[in-house]
Design goal:
Blueprint (H helix, E strand, L loop, with lengths): L5 H30 L2 H27 L14 H29 L10 H26 L2 H28 L5 H28 L6 H12 L4 E12 L2 E11 L4 H18 L3 E11 L3
Parallel strand pairs: 2-3
Antiparallel strand pairs: 1-2
Helix pairs in contact: 1-2, 1-4, 2-3, 2-5, 2-6, 3-5, 3-6, 4-5, 5-6, 7-8
Length: 292
C-alpha cells in the first residue's frame, strides 16, 4: 500500500462521502428553489441517490469485514460486488427520473432562464464531488475495494453532471432557456452509462472472473522460484471482495518426507503473500511426481 494508514481510510472515507453528499443535497436543493433551475434540482436529486449509495457502501464494508464462518468459508467479501451493483442500479433509476422530468418540461414548455446564483451551486458541486472522487478512488485502489471504487465513481458522475448543469445554466441565462432541461437530460445519460459499467463490473466479480494476467504471472513466477517445486499442475485465483484468493497445485519429488512437503507449502504461501497485494487465502496442494 502507498501509506501505512491506508487500511484505516477504508472505514473513514464512506463517512466523509456521506457527509459531503448530504450537504450537497441541501445546498443544491436550496439554490435550485431560489433560482428556479430544474437542472440543478435534478443534480440535487442525484446527490440524494449518492447518500443512499454511501449508506449501502457503508453497510457492505461492515459485512465484508466479518471473518469467515461455517456458512461463508471464503468470508463475506462478495457483498462488496452486490453493493457495487446496487449503487449502479440506484444511478440508473435516478437518471430515468431526471430524463422523465426533462422531457416533460420540454414537451410542456415548462422551462425558463434560471437565476445566475444557480451557477454557484453547480460550481461548488463540481469541486466537492471531484475531490471526493479522487480521495475515494485512492482509498479504493489501495484497499482493492470494489464497493469504495463504485462509490467514488458515483461522486465522479455527480461532478460530470454538475459540469453539464453549469453549461446548461449558462446557456439558459444567455437566452436559451431550453438548455436547462436539455442539460438535465444529458446529465442523466452520462449517469446511466456509469451505472451500467458498475453493474457489469459487479457481475464479473460475482461470477469469479479471473484476475488480471499480470497478477497471475507474478504468482506463477513466485512458484517457479521456490526450491523443491518441479512444476505447476494448475493455478486458480478469484477475487472475493477486496481480497484475492489463490489455489495452486505444484509438483514435487514423490520421495520427499512429509515435513519437507510442509516446508515447501509454508515457504510458497509466504512468498505469494509477500509478492502480491491484497492476498486473502492461499491454498497449496502437492502433487507427487516420480523423478527418474
Amino acid at each position: 500500500m502507498k501509506y501505512p494508514h491506508c487500511p484505516e481510510c477504508r472505514y473513514q472515507v464512506v463517512w466523509y462521502a456521506m457527509t459531503s453528499n448530504v450537504f450537497m443535497v441541501f445546498f443544491k436543493g436550496t439554490l435550485s428553489i431560489l433560482s428556479g433551475c430544474s437542472a440543478l434540482m435534478a443534480d440535487a436529486l442525484h446527490s440524494s441517490a449518492d447518500v443512499v449509495a454511501s449508506g449501502v457502501t457503508m453497510a457492505s464494508m461492515r459485512i465484508s469485514g466479518k471473518p469467515a464462518d461455517d456458512s461463508h468459508v471464503y468470508g463475506h467479501g462478495k457483498i462488496q460486488f452486490v453493493s457495487s451493483a446496487v449503487v449502479g442500479m440506484l444511478l440508473i433509476v435516478g437518471a430515468m427520473f431526471i430524463i422523465y422530468g426533462a422531457v416533460r418540461s420540454i414537451i410542456n414548455h415548462e422551462y425558463s432562464s434560471p437565476d445566475a446564483i444557480a451557477l454557484l451551486g453547480a460550481g461548488v458541486s463540481v469541486v466537492a464531488n471531484e475531490l471526493m472522487y479522487r480521495y475515494q478512488s485512492c482509498v479504493g485502489r489501495e484497499n482493492n475495494s470494489p464497493a469504495i471504487i463504485a462509490n467514488a465513481w458515483d461522486n465522479r458522475s455527480d461532478a460530470i453532471s454538475s459540469i453539464a448543469v453549469m453549461i446548461g445554466i449558462a446557456l439558459a441565462i444567455f437566452g436559451y432557456p431550453i438548455a436547462d432541461p436539455l442539460a438535465a437530460a444529458g446529465v442523466a445519460l452520462v449517469i446511466i452509462h456509469i451505472g451500467v459499467e458498475l453493474i457489469k463490473d459487479a457481475i464479473a466479480g460475482l461470477m469469479d472472473t479471473s484476475p488480471e494476467v499480470e497478477e497471475l504471472r507474478k504468482i506463477y513466477e513466485v512458484m517457479r522460484g521456490v526450491g523443491g517445486i518441479l512444476g505447476v499442475s494448475y493455478m486458480r485465483a478469484r477475487t472475493v471482495g477486496d481480497a484475492l484468493h489463490v489455489e495452486v497445485s505444484v509438483e514435487v519429488d514423490a520421495s520427499l518426507f512429509v515435513y519437507e512437503g510442509d516446508v515447501i507449502v509454508d515457504v510458497l504461501r509466504e512468498r505469494i503473500v509477500n509478492a502480491v497485494d491484497h492476498i486473502g487465502e492461499v491454498y497449496v496442494f502437492l502433487t507427487p511426481l516420480e523423478v527418474v
